[in-house]
Fold this protein.
Amino acid sequence: MWKKRNRLIFLLVLTVFLKPLYATAFEADQREGLIVQYEQGLQTAGASVHAIYPTLKAELEIQFGWPLDFRPTVILMKDQTAFQIRAGSDFYSAYALPHQQLIVIDYTKMATRPFLFRSTLKHELTHLLLHRHIPSEGLPKWLDEGLAQWASGGIAEILMDRDVGVLRKAGLSGHLIPLQNLSSTFPDEKDALLLAYEESNSIVDYIEKEFGADALRQVLAALQAGDAIELAISKNLSISLASLQQNWARNLNDKMIWWVFLGGNLSLFLFSIAAVATVWGFIRFWFKKKNYKDDDEDGDGALDEGFAPFGMDDNHDFIDIDQLDDVDDLDHIND
């Protein structure tokens, strides 16, 4: 009885909330390799997706070494309420459904920021590409999101302002989220969600810098072949996943400690630089002054023979110009 009633309530709520979504009118622009659907008034945006897609496709194929050999669908929306219902949260500006090869973007967040639009589209295309070549159950979410941010220049699909301070505080306090807790889902709470994205971005960036992009691609190839993430890491990075996480956290904390030290001693640091600059400036000034005096002493004495500055006669006596009779006498002096 209760189950039946709960099911009816659920269907009623679902119908009410999804009615505006399906009432949204979309236009479609289907071309070879890509389908773009958009709400009325977004024709120009739809055309821009077609324009930039070939470049993004080529970039991703080079970055990952895999072909983007499917036809994705990109939906551009301007109805924010309908988008949030689809996304299941108001934290996101875009999301991907890899099993449908579908990308949905809230274009109201992109209209005035072309670079963000391009990077967001590349981020979501990365999700589709990864799931095309790696079984979803074998691709940890932290790696999925970290790689999407790595490929798109650090851009995430969340609307919240990026705050590395969240990662810094979690690292210094020992409250980083263990990777095993980010394998299948991310937290729903805002700060924890932001930390999950920052951690994912940071650890993939650490792997790339510490082991190289080729090693990162080898890990992905192992996942594609069916290896679990622990085995893929150990085979290609020669380190266990647990040790990788520990080394990453230690490296993160070392960087944070330096930033905290510099931040806490910034005034002392700047004062020390200013003091050294002052002493160095005084030393240079003293040497210049000393060299100038030496040169001046070396230049004292009689003037060179045969040289008489203007206003002197040949005996180096000054001439009273007012006593000259005419211009010819002045010319004689100049000669």
In short: The longest strand covers residues 26-31. Residues 7 and 305 are 117 Å apart (CA to CA). The chain has three domains: 1-133, 146-294, 306-335. Confidence is low (pLDDT under 50) at residues 1-22, 258-265, 301-308.
